[in-house]
Specification:
Elements (H helix, E strand, L loop, with lengths): L1 E9 L9 E7 L19 E2 L2 H11 L4 E6 L7 H13 L2 E7 L13 E5 L15 H4 L5 E6 L2 H13 L8 E6 L18 H11 L4 E2 L4 H4 L8
Parallel strand pairs: 2-4, 4-5, 5-6, 6-7, 7-8, 8-9
Antiparallel strand pairs: 1-2, 1-3
The protein binds iron/sulfur cluster (SF4).
């Protein structure tokens, strides 16, 4: 499979934020989100056979733990990435799959924890969510909405209500988009939507969502790669 990078860091998003994690980032994406922070993964990387990927994961985390399969969009390489997930599970890793929600997810192994985006109106990839993926969701999965403004927030709030998602998944994440060119200071001034404003909207509307900040951008320089 075509791999952009494999590295160990702290998980920055989702309910697993703060935990040590090996990231396996696959090359290529078919979407172009306006706030994408991994454009470097669209092209290039290195062709690696499955055993080499497993070996690198084992080198970075020899005694199990958390592994996230991410991208780009990892499900573009479904034929290779599903056996990778199966083998990681067999080796007792806890496997997260970070995906755009545009690819059909029904063939993902059930033990994998899917963190699935639903792209909002101002993402640059609106209306790409494969609605049949709602049926593939399990209680341990998480849904993520990245928000730039009130329009995105209202879309996310109404999507959650319309599809009765409260209680269907482990977490519904509302995450302010980060400025793509952010660097230097490590604070929430780089958020396109002020987290305080978002918190107030969530409380006003009683939305069953978890406000989620990308903590890796508050720990390291927001422009840092491989963290
Ligand atoms: S789906 Fe993910 S990798 Fe692809 S453009 Fe959007 S944010 Fe970037």
């Amino acid at each position: 499979m075509q791999i952009s990078e494999i590295y160990k860091s702290l998980q920055g998003e989702s309910t697993y934020a703060g935990l040590a994690c090996v990231f396996v980032r696959l090359t290529a994406c078919n979407l172009r989100c306006s706030w994408c922070d991994s454009e470097f993964s669209f092209y290039g990387g290195k062709k690696m056979p499955l055993q080499e990927v497993l070996g690198e994961v084992a080198r970075l985390s020899p005694s199990g733990g958390l592994v996230e399969i991410t991208g780009g969009e990892p499900m573009l390489q479904e034929r290779e990435v599903i056996p990778l997930m199966e083998q990681l599970l067999d080796a007792d890793y806890q496997v997260l799959l970070e995906t755009s929600g545009e690819r059909v997810l029904s063939r993902v192994p059930k033990q994998v924890i899917k963190i699935v985006d639903v792209k909002c109106p101002h993402s640059g990839a609106a209306d790409t969510f494969a609605i049949e993926n709602l049926k593939a969701l399990q209680r341990h999965d998480e849904l993520k909405f990245v928000l730039t403004d009130r329009t995105d927030y209202e879309f996310a709030r109404d999507f959650v209500a319309e599809h009765e998602l409260a209680g269907r998944v482990h977490a519904i994440l509302f995450s302010p988009a980060f400025e793509k060119a952010a660097s230097g200071t490590r604070d929430t001034s780089h958020c396109q939507l002020d987290p305080q404003q978002l918190a107030e909207w969530i409380l006003e509307d009683n939305v069953p969502a978890r406000l989620s900040l990308q903590i890796h951008k508050l720990i390291w320089d927001p422009a840092a790669k491989g963290v």
